Structure formats: C-alpha cells, structure tokens
Amino acid sequence: MVSWMISRAVVLLFGMLYPAYYSYKAVKTKNVKEYVRWMMYWIVFALYTVIETVADQTVAWFPLYYELKIAFVIWLLSPYTKGASLIYRKFLHPLLSSKEREIDDYIVQAKERGYETMVNFGRQGLNLAATAAVTAAVKVMEFH
C-alpha cells in the first residue's frame, strides 16, 4: 500500500507535473529542441499510461512492481538516459510511421461512427422524452 502511494505520487509529480511545466516553458520560449523533446516524452508517456492501466490490474502483485514503475518514470525523464527519446526513436516512431495510414483511416471511421451513434442516441432520447411527455399528459387528462 505504501509502495502504491509513493509510486502514484512520483508518477504524478515527476511523470506529469514536471514535464507539463517544462512543456509550457518550451512552448513559451519557442525552443524547438525542447518542444520536440517534450512532445516525444508525452507520446511515450501516453503509451506508458495505457500499459500501466492494464498492468496495475494484472501484475501489480509482482514483487517490486511499484518500485520498477518509479524507476521507469525517472529513466524516461532523465537527461542522461534520454529514455523517452530512445523509446520514441527506436520503437514508436517506426511503428507509427508504418501504421500511420491505417491509424488515420480508423480515426476517420471512428469519428463518423461516433457522430452517427450520437445522432441515434439523441434521436432515441428525444423519442423517449416525447413518449414520456405524451404519456404523462394523457394520464393527467384521464385523472381530471
């Protein structure tokens, strides 16, 4: 339990707040090198967050799991190890580049389906509300 709390604090502080502040600084100063560094970090951290969500539910029982998470986040951030840059350049960039067209097509399809789904839910909601209003009006008329 204590390991979980320390891990959570480290991930929030060093994995999110520290990089967020330095991302702000990079944008503010228009420092392209730092901007690229932090964009790579956020892309890697997004993948880490997805993996962490699954791992927390499946392998959190593993000895030193939370300590390994702390070490990994520090490794990602370290200017000496350049962990996020390494993962991005060696793994994520090649993977995303090779799958970019498929990912873009999927996103377009998801947006279209999402819009259609929302329209259908909206239509069903309005029909339900209209039916409820008519039913209530009929009951009020029958009561009087």
Automatic annotation (TrEMBL):
List the InterPro entries. TB2_DP1_HVA22 (IPR004345)
A biological-process GO annotation: cell division
Q: How does it sit in the membrane?
A: Multi-pass membrane protein
Its domain of life reads Eukaryota
What are the protein's GO molecular function terms? microtubule binding
Instruction: Tell me the keywords, alphabetical order.
Output: Cell cycle, Cell division, Endoplasmic reticulum, Membrane, Microtubule, Mitosis, Transmembrane, Transmembrane helix
- Membrane keyword on record: yes
Compartments (UniProt record)? Endoplasmic reticulum membrane; Membrane
Which cellular component terms (GO) are annotated to the entry?
A: cytoplasmic microtubule; endoplasmic reticulum membrane; endoplasmic reticulum tubular network
| Residue ranges of the TM segments | 6-24, 36-55, 61-80
Looking up PANTHER family in the UniProt record yields:
HVA22-LIKE PROTEINS, RECEPTOR EXPRESSION-ENHANCING PROTEIN 3
| Family to which this protein belongs | Belongs to the DP1 family.
Function according to Swiss-Prot or TrEMBL: Microtubule-binding protein required to ensure proper cell division and nuclear envelope reassembly by sequestering the endoplasmic reticulum away from chromosomes during mitosis. Probably acts by clearing the endoplasmic reticulum membrane from metaphase chromosomes.
Return the protein name. Answer: Receptor expression-enhancing protein
Which species is listed as the source?
Equus asinus
